[in-house]
Design a protein that fits this description.
With 200 residues, the chain is α+β, with helices and mostly antiparallel strands. The chain is 28% helix and 22% strand. The longest helix is centred in the first third of the chain and has 14 residues.
């Protein structure tokens, strides 16, 4: 973990922000979905600005490949990663990944941290608030909710939760100095963190 945190601190252009909008007692702000009455955990303004800026700046470079995210607890350099996530610049069917297209208004997907189901904030909110949906909450998010939250009603964190955000370029190298694709990097970081709970 020391190797990883040294690499995280030294990585150029990284951003590190609180994931949620919280009060001093770590109570997470709740917002309502625009289209339904379901309750959602609120992202912090800082993390929204960081994701938007990273994507907008990435589009200005031809060698930009996407973004690495690590969710965890504790400040750098003592950050403890819990979940690794990535989003690619290119989609499976489209030149631009739908997760990052129109990022300033794309809050349902929002670079993988969107409010919709099958996106991190939406799925974690589903696990906590148990709102009605086309499927049950996913087990990995039920487990993540237990790991992060001291209570669900109201949603109160056990400790501050942060999101590490790193743009990935064609010449970027991982903690061991090896050039990786984003998907290869995710596997390497998953191994270093030593957690089973890793999602795309």
């Amino acid at each position: 973990m020391l190797l990883l945190n040294k690499w995280l601190c030294n990585a150029s252009e990284h951003r590190f922000e609180p994931l949620f909008s919280v009060s001093k007692d770590l109570r997470v702000e709740i917002k309502s979905s625009e289209n339904t009455e379901k309750r959602l955990l609120a992202r912090s303004p800082e993390v929204e600005r960081a994701i938007i800026s990273t994507i907008e700046e990435g589009f200005r470079r031809d060698d930009w490949e996407g973004i690495l995210y690590i969710l965890g607890i504790g400040q750098l350099p003592k950050f403890q990663g819990i979940m690794v996530s990535i989003t690619d610049k290119h989609g499976i069917k489209n030149e631009i990944n739908e997760n990052i297209k129109n990022i300033k208004s794309n809050y349902n997907k929002f670079g993988r941290w969107g409010d919709g189901l099958d996106y991190h904030i939406g799925d974690l909110s589903h696990a906590i608030f148990q709102f009605q949906a086309y499927r049950k909450p996913k087990k990995r998010y039920l487990d993540l909710a237990q790991q992060l939250f001291a209570s669900f009603e109201p949603p109160v964190l056990k400790s501050p939760v942060y999101l590490y955000i790193l743009p990935w370029y064609a010449d970027s190298v991982g903690p061991f100095g090896i050039r990786h694709s984003l998907r290869e990097l995710k596997k390497e970081l998953t191994y270093i963190i030593g957690r089973e709970q890793v999602v795309a």
